[in-house]
Amino acid sequence: MSERSAHGRVHDSSTPREAVLAAEQKYESWLKILTGELTSREAAAQAGVDRSTIMMLRKVARDGAIAALQASRPGRPRDAREASEVARLQAENARLQATIVEQAIELAALRGKSAWG
Q: Are residues 63 and 88 in the same domain?
């Protein structure tokens, strides 16, 4: 007898279903493969899944690690108070820069007028 899974796959009920691994199990398997404690084949047998499932797990783990490392920034993360203080200081810096530009324009205009006089 055949059944259709939630993913739309047809499954013959006479063959055993593959185990569904929890995230923690996937991580532990990936870590054991990464450290050489298990081969992909051994990890698949231990978890009760097909070797292609382990290969996909390795790809997903690698891609996820790369994405997380690309998104990370060096140094310690800022807390909310430090971030708001930095934002306040940046705004003050921008205001002071604008004031300096305005005063430089006024000074240039005044010096220009006195040269005419």
A: no
Total structural domains within the chain: 2
Residue 9 in domain:
no
Residues 6+ apart with CB under 8 A from 39: 33
pLDDT digits (tens, 9 = 90+) for 37-50: 999 999 999 999 99
**Full residue range of the structural domain in which residue 101 is found:** 81-117
Q: Which of 2, 23, 26 is nearest to 12 (CA)?
A: 2
What amino acid occupies position 100? I
Report the predicted TM-score, pTM, of the whole model to 2 decimal places: 0.49
pLDDT in tens, 68-114: 888 887 877 778 888 889 999 999 999 999 999 999 998 988 888 76
DSSP string of 44-88, one letter each residue:
HHHHTS-HHHHHHHHHHHHHHHHHHHHH--SSPPPPHHHHHHHHH
